[in-house]
Design a protein that fits this description.
9 helices; 329 residues; 10-stranded mixed β-sheet; alpha/beta; 10 strands
Length: 329
């Protein structure tokens, strides 16, 4: 399974709590445990110049009670929960916690206590996403918080671009959802080459561009059909092609049109190096989609070495055994 330890950073706001339902849904499918973390500003980092130690300790006791209440709801669903309260700057402590506890997925809302703003993300979320180096699920908080007991992913759109990284994401999603009543849509957007210039393109240039797009479309069609064949062991997998000049817009617009519950994609594409946090396409989808976006970071080192050696990193051809009888820790 792709995830073992899921972190949900909380700041006592109802907006941040909307991430919990999604963490529970993923934990159910992967057998992962959930870590609830609250970072309390120490007196040296508090907004006030002088913080009353008694008030600070009372606040800490309130936080412990708050997290205990959330923990009871999660553990009641047979999911192991770890509670932690740290001191310091929130983003820094969250990133350090990920390293210390070997967190492999962060589930976080785009905004927290600061509220929804004109910016794409709140300051803490932006720092965590850019500095953690972990896979993450970004949730756009809405007017109606999701119900943890009923949040399920029945239709997932996986963004494909023909790269081994996107294939790996599709394999991870299929493995994670094996045995569930779910439809996975493999979407590849065929980009129409841009030809920026002051004068219109000639008829010959237009024909050349159309031929280029058609060649890519045929190749992508065969590629997606093969990927769907490999993945559809016990789950429904449907390929879909789209031709568009705007790849990212095509992804989140198609997701809305299809009524999916989740978008899954690799942080990196063909043009993006591993040294970057996310590529342009991934970043644009994260910023503009109202749907939850599950972003897988770069391939594990072992997979990268296998890829360089020419191995097939996506080998889901045999159905896996169901673990529905297993109990959570």
């Amino acid at each position: 399974m792709p995830f073992k330890h899921i972190l949900v950073p909380l700041d006592s706001s109802s907006l941040a709590e909307e991430a919990i339902a999604h963490a529970i849904s993923l934990a159910r499918n992967t057998g992962a445990d959930i870590h609830l973390l609250h970072v309390q500003k120490s007196p040296s980092h508090a907004d006030e110049h002088c913080t009353d130690p008694v008030d600070w300790r009372l606040r800490r006791a309130e936080l412990r009670s708050y997290l205990n209440g959330l923990s009871e709801e999660i553990s009641g669903q047979e999911i192991a929960v770890t509670l932690s309260i740290l001191e310091g700057r929130p983003a820094e402590q969250i990133v350090e916690y990920c390293e210390e506890k070997d967190i492999d997925l962060i589930v976080i809302t785009a905004y927290g206590k600061g509220g929804i703003s004109r910016f794409d993300f709140g300051s803490t979320a932006h720092k965590v996403l850019s500095g953690s180096g972990r896979s993450f699920l970004v949730v756009r908080p809405g007017e109606a918080p999701p119900d943890p007991a009923s949040t399920t992913y029945t239709k997932i759109l996986v963004s494909m671009d023909g790269s081994p990284r996107s294939e790996w994401v599709a394999c991870q999603v299929a493995s994670m959802m094996r045995g569930q009543q779910v439809e996975i849509i493999l979407l590849q957007v065929i980009a129409v080459p841009e030809m920026p210039r002051r004068m219109p393109i000639t008829q010959e240039e237009h024909a050349t561009r159309e031929k280029f797009v058609e060649c890519n479309r045929r190749a992508a069609e065969a590629y997606l059909e093969e990927m769907a064949r490999q993945l559809q062991n016990g789950i429904k997998v449907r390929p879909r092609l789209l031709v568009s000049q705007k790849v990212a817009e095509g992804i989140y617009a198609t997701a809305e049109e299809e009524g999916v519950n989740l978008i899954a994609m690799s942080a990196h594409d063909w043009q993006t190096g591993a040294q970057q946090v996310t590529g342009t396409v991934c970043h644009t989808v994260m910023c503009h989609s109202n749907l939850p976006v599950l972003v897988f970071q770069d391939l594990p080192e072992a997979q990268l070495q296998a890829l360089h050696a020419g191995a097939d990193i996506c080998q889901i051809r045999q159905p896996t055994q169901s673990n529905s009888g297993a109990t959570h820790r």
